[in-house]
Design a protein that fits this description.
The protein is an all-beta fold. It is built from no helices and eleven strands. Strand 7 and strand 8 form a beta hairpin.
Length: 114
């Protein structure tokens, strides 16, 4: 399984971005799909998670602003990020769990100017 993430960039505070992460390879029914982020000098943290049944979970700091979704037919997970704040700036990574293994994308950088 290979993951390709894209959609990061530079945005002003209050703006929005949509991240996408597509999984490729011989895949049958991905389990959990999630987005993590890592800011300089900080540990990587879970931002949002979506299960194979569509249940979602968010870190408190993004609740009400970010929305995770998935398209199972395309093996793709999305992260809609609205009302971005400077503290959201980080490298965002997607991760999927498939057949008891975890796979990480390469990361896409989000910069938020104040």
């Amino acid at each position: 399984v290979q993951l390709q993430a894209f959609g990061g960039g530079l945005v002003q505070a209050g703006g929005f971005l949509r991240l996408s992460c597509a999984a490729s390879g011989t895949i049958f029914s991905i389990n959990d799909m999630g987005w993590y982020r890592q800011a300089p000098g900080k540990q990587r943290e879970l931002v949002a998670l979506i299960t194979s049944r569509g249940s979602t979970n968010y870190v408190d700091s993004v609740k009400g602003r970010f929305t995770i979704s998935r398209d199972n037919a395309k093996n793709t997970v999305y992260l809609q990020m609205n009302s971005l704040k400077p503290e959201d700036a980080a490298v965002y990574y997607c991760k999927v769990r498939y057949r008891l293994r975890e796979y990480w994308g390469q990361g896409t950088k989000v910069t938020v100017s104040s």
